[in-house]
User: What shape does this take?
Amino acid sequence: MSDGKILHRAMRSIISELKVGNTGVLLLGSGGRLGRMLRLHWPTPHSLGLQSRQAASGVLCFDPLRDTDALERAAEGVQAVICLAGVTPAHAIATGDAMALNTGLALAAVRAAPVDARVFVASSAAVYGADGGLHRETDDVVPVSGYGHAKRAMEQAALEAGAGRVCVLRIGNVAGADAILGGWRAGMTIDQLPDGRTPRRSYIGPVTLAKALHALCGADALPDIVNIAAPGAVAMGDLLDAAGLVWTPRTAGSDVIGEVTLDTARLERVYTFEPSESTPQGLVAQWRKGEGRT
Assistant: This one.
């Protein structure tokens, strides 16, 4: 089946009649950076069951690919599963794990979840490829990186296997888990465009991320794919300025994309954003809260 046909069918399928209350959410991959953010900021922490391959207090420790029995036991009776477990480029370099494991992990979550439970699988804005402008979930996707291709393959497999129960989360930049704020280092340089501005990207703060996913778990109906970002876009330089982190401009090359924005209309039907959640100052405040900074 072609990519276009799969996407068209995915967009027609709507998850409905699956209401999640304040209990029964299993978080796979809770030891990763995004997982730790959700653990810290989840609005109802008593409702969140945690899994990781790293041993920690209050966390179920097992490999979801190798110990499917443990995964099925962990998912028994839950009303939603959030699968953040996956292989990023950095993880692949450090461990040698193949990007294809992203598909295996997502399918393991789908198979283990109860038939009446929702399953959220973490994808990435990387599936949209290198084009600038506004990206909607209904757009054709043309990933260019190996990571983007792996995530797109994961999306297709999960939507096929999920029989209307899967919601793909196309996550944008998360403040503190990104290459600019989270990856800041002394001497950092940022591209400066001809108009004097720095590139603008969609962002979401870690507190908002947790609140938005919590809202999605309890929504009356969900589309199969939803962009995860705050409305609008934030300039990279403005973000570092708001954090008081020094950076140096460099002349942007002709291949630098001035703005990439994720359309958030679908998410806004479920979660109401405060204006501050889209500002550099608001994003930095959320990052500092999670990092224990002042």
Remarks:
- Residues 146-162 form the longest helix (17 residues).
